[in-house]
Structure prediction request, 229 residues.
Amino acid sequence: MSWQAYLPLIARGAWTSVQLSLWALFIAFLLGLATAGAKLSGRPAAIFVARLYTTLIRGVPDLVLMLLLFYGIQRGLNWLTDLCGVELIQINPFAAGVMTLGFIYGAYFAETFRGAFTSVDCGQREAATSFGMTPSQSFRLVTFPLMMRFALPGISNNWQVLVKSTALVSIIGLSDVVKAAVDAGKGTYHVLLFMLLAAGLYLFWASLSGILLRQLSRRYSLGIRVAGL
Prediction:
């Protein structure tokens, strides 16, 4: 079979990787906000859990964490289904990839958001309170837009690493662009060609998203003077 015949497979794998990275970003963003809020809550129990989570993630390699989470959850489901006497539940590789990547990078986003939140002048929050805003309104309308200006550089860096880490999901059986490239290389004996193609697709996706993030950063910076913050 010619190498051109494998291009649709590569395209499907690339689209899977794009979807995986975006969904994982969504999970990591929410988990990062929640963890940063826990660290700044002043509640000892919440602070302890948040610190334990971020320390664990930063101290264990991503590949090891992915294998632990995937096979650990699958083993737990097997035990639960045996206990309940129901049919075995197999974890969907795409859902597993989204959850594991989101869980891993939620810890890195948490540190980004925590630093950004502390960079916002407390007078801004006090002014929102004096105008009668509730805590949720103050965060949504005042604190969040201001903190995003400080968080976007860190978000951009974490996003670039997250995109590259999607390559790891091929080890749990997901047909992403890396697995598609490996299969195409084995089928045509042009492994180098398809690996270069996969690398080019990752570079294109990371570069495009980097441009979009820079545009977003400029938008959040409009009308904000550094000296005033």
